[in-house]
Design brief:
Layout lengths: L10 H24 L6 H10 L38 H7 L1 H9 L3 H7 L4 H11 L2 E5 L8 H10 L5 E5 L46 H10 L2 H6 L2 H10 L5 E5 L13 H15 L7 E7 L3 H5 L11 H5 L4 E7 L11 H9 L9 E7 L3 E2 L29 E5 L1 E3 L1 H10 L6 E5 L2 E2 L4 H4 L1 H7 L29 H4 L3 H7 L9
Parallel strand pairs: 1-2, 2-3, 3-4, 4-5, 5-6, 6-8, 7-9, 8-10, 9-11
Length: about 500
């Protein structure tokens, strides 16, 4: 018994095409209603491509209306060779890594966050550019909330640039520790607790701050921000989750100059931060920015055999190739001024002297002395810093910039001559010479090159007008001056922010 071939068109196939077209329209409409940031045509086309549907295949014109002249696509079967399935155009674009990365790089963070809600593939592809730059403003629950730490462990490997911000606020101020019975001031010697477990893996019963009496006293008189800043295991866990960091930016603004010699909760957080950096597997770390940092903060970030340092801590800081420092200045011309913080600044640069290639330094506020030639400064005893001044020689330094400093012409000449074998470029921004002129300061370039061709490469920038800073009113701190001038910092951090995932 034979089968009769029907001459009627394939109704089920047409109904299937119409159902797919209606489904595509419904998804686009529902997406626009639920997520207002998806109303751009590029993101709507992306959602349509996720279901392997394109408007051109189903008779849609430029205005997203059905055309009467266009019909549903028909399958043409060749008896010789079967036709290959057609891949939608946007799907081919989405599968191309370079095209997709450029497309995602032009989307703002809000659109990237909404795009991740479309489907699993969008969530995976949009995560690296969305979480590449992460800013953390430290609070008491930043590294202790379980849900937040679980989320950080899921996305931490995408972080390339981390900005750790902890401003000086009234909550970070630590008053004197007083005995509740006698009213006398108690001395607190801080010893960081690296781990909550002993060598056998059991929870340790040792008090966090040395003794039970001191622990109870600190809990009663100091706020939760101090106890969160001394939670070293939480810092180590957070930085271990962000193991692909290549640029670390530490920002501690707002310190009162009158409290320059008093320790605050910010200093304890810097101790925990340094321990976490040294003990976490941050093998890609190459750029360090301190924008800005108070003078005492350099002491707690400096790697030294104390405060929980490890023998391998020096190797972590030796990875740094690019260093940018903005230090809060003080009244250098005051009588009987102390030079302790200048010595701390010079000692802080010693661990970076072997591998540092690019260096940017600026005094934030009034102009101050150059930290690389302190031995010749009038406010510093040359006898005490005679040996330390030799350690400020950077063996691989290729570029350096000094901003808002004062020095002598012979000091500029000595600084350039000391790094003549590796130095390629040097910039002086808002630098005042106490003695001599710039022709005398840069005469060493003529001696080294044998000609005066370096004069053609000078870039002279006019000084800012009085009463304003880069065209802004008094009291306003522009973003360009906060991170350095745009031209300098753009070239300084050009190769350090973006890394391929």
């Amino acid at each position: 018994m034979g089968l009769r071939k029907s001459n009627q068109p394939d109704q089920p196939e047409k109904r299937g095409v119409k159902q797919l077209l209606d489904l595509y329209r419904q998804k686009c409409i529902s997406t626009c209603l639920l997520y207002p940031t998806f109303r751009s045509s590029a993101v709507i086309m992306t959602l349509g491509a996720a279901n392997f549907i394109t408007a051109s295949e189903y008779g849609m014109d430029a205005n997203n209306r059905c055309s009467d002249k266009l019909t549903a696509p028909t399958r043409v079967q060749s008896p010789a060779a079967p036709s290959r399935p057609r891949i939608p155009a946007f799907l081919r674009f989405w599968r191309t890594d370079k095209c997709r990365s450029v497309f995602l790089s032009h989307l703002p963070s809000a659109d990237l966050a909404s795009l991740r809600l479309g489907c699993h593939d969008f969530s995976v592809r949009a995560a690296p550019p969305l979480f590449a730059n992460l800013t953390i403003t430290f609070r008491p629950s930043t590294f202790t909330r379980p849900a937040r730490m679980a989320a950080l462990e899921r996305i931490g490997h995408h972080v390339r640039t981390l900005t750790f911000c902890m401003p000086h606020t009234p909550e970070s101020f630590l008053p004197p520790l007083l005995d509740p019975h006698t009213g006398e001031e108690r001395v607190f010697v801080y010893q960081p607790q690296i781990s909550c477990h002993d060598s056998q893996g059991y929870l340790t019963r040792t008090p966090k701050y040395g003794s039970s009496e001191m622990t109870d006293l600190l809990i009663q008189q100091y706020g939760p921000l101090f106890h969160a800043a001394t939670n070293v295991p939480a810092f180590i866990r957070a930085f271990t989750a962000m193991r692909c960091i290549s640029h670390l930016n530490v920002s501690c603004p707002g310190q009162d100059p009158a409290l320059r010699y008093r320790r605050s909760a910010v200093d304890y957080a810097l101790i925990s931060l340094r321990i976490a950096v040294e003990r976490s597997p941050l093998k890609l770390l190459s750029t360090l920015s301190l924008l800005p940092i108070h003078p005492g903060g350099l002491f707690y970030l400096r790697s030294m055999p104390a405060f929980g340092s490890s023998p391998s801590g020096m190797r972590r800081w030796a990875q740094v190739r690019k260093l940018a420092i903005h230090v809060d200045s003080w009244a250098f011309d005051a009588p009987n001024i102390s030079t302790d913080h200048l010595k701390l600044l010079q000692d802080f640069l010693v661990p970076f002297s072997s591998n540092l290639e690019r260096l940017f330094f600026r005094w934030k506020g009034t102009k101050g002395p150059c930290p690389f030639v302190l031995s010749s400064e009038p406010i510093v005893s040359a006898k005490k810093l005679k040996q330390r001044s030799r350690q400020t020689w950077f063996r691989r330094l290729r570029y350096f910039e000094l901003a808002n400093v004062t020095l002598h012409a012979f000091e500029v000449c000595s600084l350039i001559n000391r790094h003549r074998r590796t130095l390629k470029e040097c910039d002086f921004d808002e630098v005042d010479l106490r003695s001599g002129n710039w022709d005398e300061a840069l005469a060493v370039l003529t001696t080294l090159s044998g000609n005066e061709s370096w004069r053609d490469k000078q870039v002279l920038t006019p000084p800012p007008s009085r009463g304003s800073m880069c065209g802004t009113n008094d009291g306003e701190m522009p973003n360009e001056m906060y991170f350095g001038s745009p031209r300098h910092m753009k070239s300084f951090l050009r190769d350090s922010v973006m890394l391929s995932s």
